[in-house]
Amino acid sequence: MVRKLTVVVGLAISLVVARKTSADPIGPDAFVSPTLIDFESAPDGRIDGRYSSQGVTFSELFGGGFADVGTGSGITGVATNFPVFVGCPAGGCPDANARFSSLNTRVGFYVSTNPADDLTIFAYRGTSLVGSEFFRTGGAGHGGSFAGVEFASGFDRIVLHTTSVENGALVIDDFRFEGSPLPTPEPATVILFATGLVGACLRRRLRSPEHDSARPHSL
Asked: Which of 43, 44, 207, 214 is 20 to 30 A removed from 189 (C-alpha atoms)?
């Protein structure tokens, strides 16, 4: 019995750890009522706090470009992780960041990269990594695909990391986010619950008739 309960405790703890790092890739149809940013009004230069009133602040993201990234609307205003009229530096383009004013559970956008440069989305809650998801991307500015993730525990920042095989250039459009995180038990709470379960079962075992029959009886 004790061995079985030890396994239960271990599983409970591992499930909490797994939940912190697991991601669910999602498509555009998974969003119910998101905040949508199409970058049509983005400045010719750094976007930074241009959309802070809508709940998100960007860094290392620039406006002023036009491309078809697979939204179905053809060539439209987009955001890039490099100045449009300058291009990527010799060491490759930097990672773009989006910081949200509140916790969200879903984020997604249409993306186009060079064929060899794939995308990974890293999600953070404060300074803690919630999880990540890898996407094979391409299009080179003449097409693209949708990259979306859902983390039930919530996040307030994402990093868009493009593998810099060619130059790490990234073009995005129709950036959307939504959702309120569901309450999740902290690891300490799960451990306390599991420990209490072990104690309760041990107490029950000590009171069982089988255990009583093994006790010495007084004459």
From this structure: 207
